[in-house]
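EI: anyone free to look at a 159-residue chain?
SC: sure, send it
EI:
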Amino acid sequence: MSDVVNVDSDLLTWPNGELVDVESIEGYAEDARIVATSPLEDGVIRTPDWVMGELANVSRHAARMVLVIHQAEAFKRRAATELERARARARVEHAGMPPAQQTARIVLAVLEEKRAYDDAVVAFEYARRIGNLLSDYTGRVQSIGKQVELVYRDAGRGL
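SC: here you go
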Protein backbone atom coordinates (compact mmCIF):
# COMPACT_ATOMS: atom_id res chain seq x y z
CA MET A 1 0.00 0.00 0.00
CA SER A 2 2.88 2.39 0.60
CA ASP A 3 3.71 2.32 -3.13
CA VAL A 4 0.17 3.43 -3.99
CA VAL A 5 0.28 6.23 -1.42
CA ASN A 6 3.60 7.50 -2.79
CA VAL A 7 2.48 7.32 -6.40
CA ASP A 8 -0.91 8.91 -5.77
CA SER A 9 0.13 11.52 -3.21
CA ASP A 10 0.53 14.16 -5.95
CA LEU A 11 -2.93 13.34 -7.23
CA LEU A 12 -4.38 13.78 -3.74
CA THR A 13 -3.12 17.25 -2.96
CA TRP A 14 -6.19 19.42 -2.73
CA PRO A 15 -5.79 23.12 -3.60
CA ASN A 16 -6.31 24.21 0.02
CA GLY A 17 -3.22 22.24 1.03
CA GLU A 18 -5.12 19.58 3.00
CA LEU A 19 -4.80 15.98 1.96
CA VAL A 20 -8.29 15.12 3.18
CA ASP A 21 -10.98 17.18 4.83
CA VAL A 22 -14.70 17.17 4.17
CA GLU A 23 -14.29 19.56 1.24
CA SER A 24 -11.53 17.52 -0.40
CA ILE A 25 -13.37 14.23 0.11
CA GLU A 26 -16.40 15.67 -1.65
CA GLY A 27 -14.20 17.23 -4.35
CA TYR A 28 -12.39 14.01 -5.19
CA ALA A 29 -15.66 12.09 -5.13
CA GLU A 30 -17.21 14.64 -7.50
CA ASP A 31 -14.26 14.28 -9.91
CA ALA A 32 -14.77 10.51 -9.88
CA ARG A 33 -18.56 10.86 -10.22
CA ILE A 34 -18.09 12.83 -13.43
CA VAL A 35 -15.94 10.03 -14.85
CA ALA A 36 -18.33 7.32 -13.70
CA THR A 37 -21.39 9.01 -15.20
CA SER A 38 -19.88 9.55 -18.64
CA PRO A 39 -22.43 8.54 -21.26
CA LEU A 40 -21.66 5.18 -22.81
CA GLU A 41 -24.82 4.83 -24.87
CA ASP A 42 -24.24 7.94 -26.97
CA GLY A 43 -24.07 6.21 -30.35
CA VAL A 44 -20.32 6.75 -30.72
CA ILE A 45 -18.37 3.87 -32.21
CA ARG A 46 -15.86 2.60 -29.67
CA THR A 47 -12.40 1.38 -30.60
CA PRO A 48 -9.93 -0.76 -28.68
CA ASP A 49 -7.86 2.39 -28.05
CA TRP A 50 -10.89 4.14 -26.54
CA VAL A 51 -11.59 1.13 -24.29
CA MET A 52 -7.99 0.97 -23.08
CA GLY A 53 -7.89 4.72 -22.49
CA GLU A 54 -11.19 4.74 -20.63
CA LEU A 55 -10.16 1.78 -18.47
CA ALA A 56 -6.89 3.53 -17.63
CA ASN A 57 -8.78 6.72 -16.72
CA VAL A 58 -11.35 4.98 -14.55
CA SER A 59 -8.64 2.86 -12.92
CA ARG A 60 -6.70 5.98 -11.96
CA HIS A 61 -9.81 7.46 -10.35
CA ALA A 62 -10.72 4.16 -8.67
CA ALA A 63 -7.23 3.82 -7.20
CA ARG A 64 -7.43 7.36 -5.89
CA MET A 65 -10.90 6.75 -4.45
CA VAL A 66 -9.63 3.78 -2.44
CA LEU A 67 -7.24 6.11 -0.64
CA VAL A 68 -9.85 8.88 -0.36
CA ILE A 69 -12.39 6.45 1.15
CA HIS A 70 -9.75 5.16 3.56
CA GLN A 71 -8.88 8.71 4.62
CA ALA A 72 -12.58 9.65 4.81
CA GLU A 73 -13.24 6.78 7.19
CA ALA A 74 -10.30 7.82 9.35
CA PHE A 75 -11.60 11.40 9.29
CA LYS A 76 -15.06 10.17 10.32
CA ARG A 77 -13.61 8.10 13.18
CA ARG A 78 -11.57 11.06 14.45
CA ALA A 79 -14.72 13.21 14.39
CA ALA A 80 -16.62 10.50 16.33
CA THR A 81 -13.85 10.37 18.93
CA GLU A 82 -13.86 14.14 19.30
CA LEU A 83 -17.67 14.13 19.68
CA GLU A 84 -17.47 11.49 22.44
CA ARG A 85 -14.74 13.46 24.22
CA ALA A 86 -16.83 16.62 24.05
CA ARG A 87 -19.84 14.74 25.44
CA ALA A 88 -17.74 13.37 28.30
CA ARG A 89 -16.41 16.84 29.15
CA ALA A 90 -19.95 18.24 29.07
CA ARG A 91 -21.21 15.42 31.33
CA VAL A 92 -18.51 16.18 33.89
CA GLU A 93 -19.13 19.92 33.63
CA HIS A 94 -22.87 19.53 34.16
CA ALA A 95 -22.80 16.72 36.73
CA GLY A 96 -25.26 17.12 39.58
CA MET A 97 -27.93 18.79 37.45
CA PRO A 98 -31.35 17.17 37.03
CA PRO A 99 -31.19 14.59 34.22
CA ALA A 100 -33.37 16.53 31.76
CA GLN A 101 -31.33 19.70 32.19
CA GLN A 102 -28.06 17.80 32.04
CA THR A 103 -29.08 16.14 28.76
CA ALA A 104 -30.09 19.46 27.22
CA ARG A 105 -26.86 21.13 28.32
CA ILE A 106 -24.78 18.28 26.91
CA VAL A 107 -26.58 18.46 23.57
CA LEU A 108 -26.02 22.22 23.40
CA ALA A 109 -22.38 21.89 24.47
CA VAL A 110 -21.47 19.53 21.62
CA LEU A 111 -23.26 21.20 18.71
CA GLU A 112 -20.04 22.03 16.85
CA GLU A 113 -18.58 18.54 17.29
CA LYS A 114 -21.88 16.95 16.26
CA ARG A 115 -22.02 19.07 13.12
CA ALA A 116 -18.42 18.14 12.27
CA TYR A 117 -19.19 14.45 12.82
CA ASP A 118 -22.33 14.61 10.65
CA ASP A 119 -20.37 16.33 7.86
CA ALA A 120 -17.65 13.66 8.07
CA VAL A 121 -20.21 10.83 7.91
CA VAL A 122 -21.97 12.35 4.90
CA ALA A 123 -18.64 12.86 3.10
CA PHE A 124 -17.54 9.29 3.85
CA GLU A 125 -20.82 7.80 2.62
CA TYR A 126 -20.72 9.92 -0.53
CA ALA A 127 -17.14 8.83 -1.28
CA ARG A 128 -18.04 5.19 -0.66
CA ARG A 129 -21.01 5.40 -3.01
CA ILE A 130 -18.90 7.03 -5.69
CA GLY A 131 -16.36 4.22 -5.30
CA ASN A 132 -19.19 1.75 -5.96
CA LEU A 133 -20.31 3.83 -8.95
CA LEU A 134 -16.77 3.68 -10.37
CA SER A 135 -16.80 -0.08 -9.98
CA ASP A 136 -20.09 -0.31 -11.89
CA TYR A 137 -18.76 1.99 -14.60
CA THR A 138 -15.63 -0.14 -14.93
CA GLY A 139 -17.82 -3.19 -15.52
CA ARG A 140 -19.79 -1.36 -18.19
CA VAL A 141 -16.60 -0.28 -19.98
CA GLN A 142 -15.27 -3.85 -19.78
CA SER A 143 -18.51 -5.09 -21.37
CA ILE A 144 -18.11 -2.59 -24.18
CA GLY A 145 -14.49 -3.74 -24.51
CA LYS A 146 -15.63 -7.33 -24.93
CA GLN A 147 -18.12 -6.27 -27.61
CA VAL A 148 -15.43 -4.25 -29.40
CA GLU A 149 -13.08 -7.24 -29.23
CA LEU A 150 -15.73 -9.49 -30.78
CA VAL A 151 -16.44 -7.00 -33.57
CA TYR A 152 -12.76 -6.63 -34.42
CA ARG A 153 -12.19 -10.37 -34.21
CA ASP A 154 -15.15 -11.08 -36.51
CA ALA A 155 -14.06 -8.30 -38.89
CA GLY A 156 -10.64 -9.96 -39.13
CA ARG A 157 -12.28 -13.19 -40.27
CA GLY A 158 -14.22 -11.42 -43.00
CA LEU A 159 -17.63 -12.01 -41.40
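EI: The two ends are 47 Å apart (CA to CA).
SC: 👍
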